[in-house]
């Protein structure tokens, strides 16, 4: 029976719209008004999404076999109620009875295998940051070419030659002419037209959140859409529990914070330490940091930041945080002996509020902050308290804490008793929240970026309709 009044279905109950208003539902068969439908509001949407958010956590922890059991029962119920549901579909759409019933059957059968093929996307725009110019190109260009695409690469203006050198290497390897090109220039002058270009079917971007969001918006306003893969920034936590190996944790915290002068999306910029071991860990980390060799000689550990502009930005962010009450424990200044190179002495701060700009935004320099927490739950809440979700690490010997961190810290990569970085050619890498839009590179998961799925339906028995 089609009801005369159709309400929201929220939190497993039928509820009226907060507006208390309705609109008519007419049946396409005879133009009759068959029901009054709740006219929802933004407030109703907020209510439903808040309930979904609180339910998602528990549902995500229900073991998959149990989830399958419930969904299997739902599919069986669809079949059982075929007539009732077919009647609803018919009233709503006006479809002939047999088609309405067939729709019920195809809904119940979702999950059956069909034949699918991967097809090249076509032309890929690969837009890259400056921090690892060669790895950045390799991560995008190898899978893109392997999948049969042509690539136009736009690497960062501050690292202008790597992409051209890579082109020469591909030519030497025998790649056909024109399959790979690299355009040089500034972001708004070359990157933007590349994103707008109608030949481009995929924009694969690695860089800052601001540019990533701009690219997403630009692609949305193209006459014809393109696929967009975004790999963006991070504000990655490394949690040191009270049962951690403090020497190992300090070693990994220092490497996470200061390798590549902190210019890494996976840099450990928030070190969250249990109260009970805070002082001992801080001493261990300060001692390790003092041993970091700053310079660009073969055995040095921490090079310069990329530009004078970056240098000024990082120094002034530290100064501003100190003015807001942060305590600078070490570093954070220029190194006279290495001037005019853009070297910054690795910096550690404490007493930085969790909602301070320094805790919430990516600095992309050799700077990290220490936070003191009383419990595991507080550490987890702090770890999750930024708009980013790229990587994170936990140092503990407790398997329960390890499992809880893996499940409840929202990020694309979780590392146990290690550093916050840890990508490899075989590993899918990427983030959630502002750290990315769901794709992963490289690994076999990169095939989902550089290929389109094509579903093929073949009727081998033409006699059968
Ligand atoms: P950026 O956003 O400033 O620049 C990245 C690229 O975008 C450059 O090639 C630039 O020329 C181009 N660009 C700028 N404006 C553009 C526009 N309007 N349209 C198209 N292209 C434009 O980033 P950056 O400073 O080079 O790199 C640092 C950022 O990259 C950090 O946020 C870091 O976390 C992120 N990153 C992320 C990953 C990852 O895998 N998630 C890896 C490395 C770096």
Plain-language structure description:
The model has no long low-confidence stretch (mean pLDDT 92). It is globular and about 85 Å long. The protein has 2 domains: 245 residues, 3-Layer(aba) Sandwich (Aldehyde Dehydrogenase, Chain A, domain 1); 181 residues, Aldehyde Dehydrogenase, Chain A, domain 2 (3-Layer(aba) Sandwich), CATH 3.40.309.10. The two termini are 31 Å apart. The protein is of the alpha/beta class and 465 residues long. Helices cover 38% and strands 20% of the residues. It has a 7-stranded mixed beta sheet with strand order 14-15-16-13-12-18-19, with helices on both faces. Strands 9-8-7-10-11 form a 5-stranded parallel beta sheet, with helices on both faces. The site of nicotinamide-adenine-dinucleotide has 30 residues, from α7 and α8.
Topology (elements, then pairings):
Elements: E1 5-6, E2 8-10, E3 13-15, E4 22-26, E5 33-38, H1 42-60, H2 64-80, H3 82-93, H4 97-108, E6 115-120, E7 123-127, H5 133-146, E8 150-154, H6 162-173, E9 180-182, H7 187-196, E10 202-206, H8 209-220, E11 227-231, E12 236-240, H9 246-258, E13 268-274, H10 275-290, H11 308-323, E14 327-330, E15 347-350, H12 357-360, E16 367-373, H13 376-383, E17 388-389, E18 391-395, H14 399-408, E19 413-416, E20 432-433, H15 447-450, E21 451-456
Helix pairs in contact: 2-4, 3-4, 9-10
The site of nicotinamide-adenine-dinucleotide (NAD) has 30 residues, from helix 7 and helix 8.
* Helix-and-strand structural type: alpha/beta
Radius of gyration: 27 Å
CATH architecture of the largest domain: 3-Layer(aba) Sandwich
User: Which strand order spans the largest sheet, edge to edge or round the barrel?
Assistant: 14-15-16-13-12-18-19
Number of helices: 15
For the termini, the CA-CA separation is 31 Å
Overall pLDDT level: 92
Number of structural domains: 2
Going by CATH, what is the homologous superfamily of the largest domain? Answer: Aldehyde Dehydrogenase, Chain A, domain 1
The best one-word shape is globular
Share of residues in strands: 15-25%
Low-confidence stretches: none
User: Approximately how much helix is present in the residues?
Assistant: 25-40%
The biggest sheet amounts to: 7 strands, mixed
**CATH fold call of the largest domain:** Aldehyde Dehydrogenase, Chain A, domain 1
Number of strands: 21
Q: CATH class of the largest domain, anyone?
A: Alpha Beta
Bound molecules: nicotinamide-adenine-dinucleotide
């Amino acid at each position: 029976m089609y009801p005369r009044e159709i309400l929201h279905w929220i939190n497993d109950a039928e509820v009226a719209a907060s507006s208390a208003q309705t609109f008519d539902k007419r049946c396409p068969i005879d133009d009759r008004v068959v029901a009054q439908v709740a006219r929802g509001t933004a407030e109703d949407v907020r209510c439903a999404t808040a309930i979904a958010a609180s339910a998602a956590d528990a549902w995500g922890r229900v073991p998959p076999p149990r989830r399958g059991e419930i969904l299997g029962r739902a599919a069986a119920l669809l079949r059982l109620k075929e007539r009732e549901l077919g009647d609803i579909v018919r009233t709503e759409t006006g479809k002939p009875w047999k088609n309405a019933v067939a729709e019920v059957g195809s809904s119940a059968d979702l999950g059956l295998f069909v034949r699918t093929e991967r097809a090249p996307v076509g032309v890929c725009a690969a837009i890259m940051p400056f921090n690892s110019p060669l790895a950045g190109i390799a991560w995008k260009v190898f899978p893109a070419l392997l999948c049969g695409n042509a690539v136009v690469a736009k690497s960062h203006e501050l690292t202008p030659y790597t992409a051209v050198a890579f082109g020469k290497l591909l030519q030497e390897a025998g790649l056909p002419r024109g399959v790979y090109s690299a355009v040089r220039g500034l972001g708004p002058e070359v990157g933007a037209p590349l994103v707008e270009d109608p030949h481009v079917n995929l924009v694969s971007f690695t860089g800052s959140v601001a540019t990533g969001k701009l690219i997403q918006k630009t692609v949305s306003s193209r006459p014809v859409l393109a696929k967009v893969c975004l790999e963006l920034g991070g504000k990655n936590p490394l949690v040191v529990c009270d049962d951690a190996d403090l020497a190992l944790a300090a070693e990994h915290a220092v490497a996470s914070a200061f390798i590549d002068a902190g210019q890494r999306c996976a840099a450990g910029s928030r070190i969250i330490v249990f109260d009970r071991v805070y002082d001992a860990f801080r001493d261990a980390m300060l001692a390790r940091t003092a041993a970091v060799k700053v310079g660009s000689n073969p055995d040095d550990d921490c090079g310069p930041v990329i530009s004078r502009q970056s240098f000024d930005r990082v120094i002034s962010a530290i100064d501003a945080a100190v003015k807001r009450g942060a305590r600078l424990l070490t570093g954070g200044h220029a190194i006279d002996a290495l001037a005019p190179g853009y070297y910054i002495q690795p910096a550690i701060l404490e007493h930085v509020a969790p909602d301070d700009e320094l805790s919430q935004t990516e600095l992309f320099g050799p700077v990290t902050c220490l936070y003191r927490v009383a419990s595991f739950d507080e550490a987890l809440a702090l770890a999750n308290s930024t708009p980013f979700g790229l990587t994170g690490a936990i140092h503990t010997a407790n398997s329960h804490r390890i499992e809880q961190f893996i499940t409840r810290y929202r990020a694309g990569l979780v590392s146990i008793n290690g550093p916050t970085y840890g990508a490899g050619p075989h590993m899918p890498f990427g983030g959630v929240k502002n750290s990315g839009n769901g794709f992963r590179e490289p690994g076999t998961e990169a095939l989902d970026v550089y290929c389109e799925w094509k579903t093929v339906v073949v009727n081998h028995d033409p006699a059968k309709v």
